[in-house]
Amino acid sequence: MQAYIIRRLLALLPTLILVSLIVFFCQRLIPGDVIDLMLSQNDLATDQDRAVIEAALGFDQPMYIQYFSWIGDVVQGDLGDSLWQNTPVTQQLAETMPITFELGLLALIVALTVAIPIGIYSAVRQDTAGDYIARSFSLLMLAIPGFWLGTLVMVFPSVWWRWSPELEYVPFFEDPLQNLSLMIVPAILLGLSMSAVTMRMTRTMMLEVMRQDYVRTARAKGLSEVAVILRHALRNGLIPVVTLIGLQVPLLIGGAVIMERIFVVPGMGLLLLEAISQRDYPVVSGVFVVVGFGVLLINLAVDLSYGWLDPKVRHQ
Amino acid sequence: MGKRLLEVEDLSVTFRTDRGIVRAVDSVSLHVDEGETLAIVGESGSGKSVTALSILGLIGDADSGRIERGRISFEGQDLIQQNDAVLRRIRGNRIAMIFQEPMSSLNPVLTIGKQVAEPIRLHQGASRAEAYEQAAELLKKVAIPDAAERLNDFPHQFSGGMRQRVMIAMALACRPKLIIADEPTTALDVTVQAQILSLLKELTREANSALILITHDLGVVARYADRVTVMYAGRIVETASARELYANPRHPYTQGLMESIPGLATEVGARLITIEGQPPDLANLPRGCAFSPRCKYSQDVCLQKPPTLETISQDHERACYGYE
Ligand SMILES: Nc1ncnc2c1ncn2[C@@H]1O[C@H](COP(=O)(O)OP(=O)(O)OP(=O)(O)O)[C@@H](O)[C@H]1O
Ligand SMILES: [Mg+2]
Questions:
Q1: Do A219 and B58 touch (CB under 8 A)?
Q2: Which of B22, B81, B98, B321 is the most exposed, having the fewest neighbouring CB atoms within 10 Å of its CB?
Q3: So where are chain A's domains?
C-alpha cells in the first residue's frame, strides 16, 4: 500500500510541472504588466526608472531563465515574495489557505448532507411528487449561477429587512460562532450548487443498485426497507458518487473564489483576484501551484478511498 | 407425508409493462406439505420466479407487479393479508429463498460472515459473536473449506459454486420450514450442479424443511422431487407425484418435455429442448389454451377459453380438454 501511494505521488510530478508551466507563462500574457502599474502609481515614467525596476525584479532576464529560477525556489518550498507587499508568498498563503479550506469543507458538508439523503429519497420514491420536487430543485441549482444567487443574498435582504450577511471576518479559533456566521452563507450557496450534480448521481446510482440481485436477497432475509437501503444498497451506490465528489473539487475552488469576492472572505480566492489585478505574478503562481497540488492530492485520496469502499479494488 | 405447510390458491400476478398489462401468473394453485419437495418446471418466462416471489411477498417492492387475486396460506396464516412487519418476520426465518444467480445475489461490499450472520442476528436476536459462530458452523455444513477463516472474505473471493453454498448456508440459517430454491444451479458448471443439489436435498431433509425446487431441468426433478408442477405461460398445466408424472404424463406439453430429454431421469443437467413452435408471448396470449398453437391435438374447444386444472386420478391433475 505504501509503495502504491509513493508510486502514485511520483506520477503526480509530470502533471505538476505542466501546471507550473501553464501558470507561469499564461499570466504573463495578461495585457498590461506590473512595471507599468508600478510606474504609474509612483509618477515615475522614465526609461531609466523602468530599467531599474526591471533589473530589481529580475524581469530583464529571458523568460525561461526566470522560470527556472522560480521553479528552483518552488522545489525548495520558497514561492518568492509578493511584488507589492514584499512579504513571502508562502506567508500570504498560510494566512489565506485555512480560510478557503474552511469554506470549501463547509460547502462540501452542506452539499453532502443535502445531496445524499435527498438523492436516496428521490430514488426510493421514484416518480412521486417528492421525487419531482427534488429533481426540479437540483435542476434549478444547476441552472442558477452561484454569483447571481450570492449577489441576491447580499442585496435583497438588506433592502427588504435591513439585514445583511456578516462581513467582518474573525478567525475560527478566536470566535467560532462569529466566524461561522460569516462563512455559513457563502458555504450554503456553494454547497447547494455542488449538491445538484451529487444528488442526481446519488439518485441514479441508488436506482441502479436497488435493482440488483443482492438487494432482493437482502429483502428475502426479512430486513426492513431502511436496513436494505442503508446497509445493502447505499455503500454500493456511493462508490461512483465519491469519484464525482473528487471531480467537483476544482469547481468547488472556482466557486469559492467568487463567493469570497462577494462576501469579502479574506481567503485564497480574494488574494488571487487582487494579485491578478495587480499583476503580482509570484502570488498568482503561488496560489495556482498550491491549488493544483491540492486538487491532485484530493483526487489521489479519492482513488485510495475506493479500496475502503470496494473490496474488489482492495484485493488487487 | 406431513401436514399441509403451504397452500397457494388461485394466485394471479400482473405486471405493468410498456406493452400493457401482463399476467405473469394466472390462477395458480399448488400446495406443499411439511418436509416434502415440490418441483416447479417450465420454460423461461412461464412464471416460476414470480410465483416464488409472491410467496415471499416480494412482488411490488421493486417492480411494477401486483398480486391481482389469490390466497397464500402458510402455517395457517394468509400471507397476502399480512402487513409488511409480519412478512418480514417470516422471510429469511420461516421461508428462505435461494436465487438463481450466485454471482450477483451476494452483496459485493459485505463480508460473507456478515451476510450469513445477518438473518441469525435479525430473527434470533443473537449477539454478533454468537451469530458469527453459527455462521461458521453453517459454512462448515455446506462444505466450505476453512469455514471459520473465510468469514472475513468477500464474495468475489469465492467461486460460483462456493457462493451458491454460501447462499444455501444463509437460507438454512434460521432453520426455515420452507426453502424456495429458484434454479439454484442453472448458472453453475455441470460438474458442480449435482453436488449443490445433493447438498441442498440432504440439508433440507436433515432440517426437516420443505423445498420448492424451481428448475428447467426435468432430469433434476426425477431425482430430487416428490411431486412436480409443470407451468406454461403463467398457468399450471399438470401436477402429479414425480413417479406418476414420469410414468404417465397426461398433458401434451409435459409429454413434449419428456420426449425432448434423451436418457430421461438418468442424466442430470440435460436441458429442455424446446418443443416445436414459438414460446408464448404473455402480452399477446391466445384466447383459449395458451399451448394450443403448439399442440398437435388442438381442437375447436381449445381455442375458446383456457382449460382449468382438473383431478384426473389420485394425486394427478391437468389442465387440458383431453385428446383421448
Ligand atoms: N419485474 C418485472 N417487470 C415486468 N414483467 C415481469 C417482471 N418479472 C417478471 N415479469 C414477467 O413475468 C414473466 C414470467 O417471469 P418469471 O421470472 O416468473 O419467469 P421464470 O419462469 O422464472 O423464467 P426463467 O426460467 O427465465 O427464470 C416474464 O416473462 C415477464 O413477462
Ligand atoms: Mg426465474
A1: yes
A2: B81
A3: 33-78, 92-314
